[in-house]
Structure prediction request, 85 residues.
Amino acid sequence: MDEKWVIKHLIAVPVEDVMKPITGRVARVDYWWLEKDGCVYRAKSFGAYQCNRDRRIVETVYGKLIKESGFTARHIPVAYVEARQ
Prediction:
């Protein structure tokens, strides 16, 4: 995976957008998120946010991006996301 892959397959969402409690959203508590430049990411095709309760999963799946492209695994205590259908 490289940044071209990210552009093709993921959508950047400002961290502030997932920090706001909004009616109808689902709370994700104690998750680690793929993050860069104040944005977290979700899949374009099926909408899944790129996060996991286990930091090691995020660091393993996105290890190359974290090592080479300035991405990080960021802990967000409580995030609010749209419910997936």
Notes: Residues 3-82 form one domain. The chain has a mean pLDDT of 93. The CA atoms of residues 36 and 70 lie 7 Å apart. The first helix runs from residue 3 to 9.
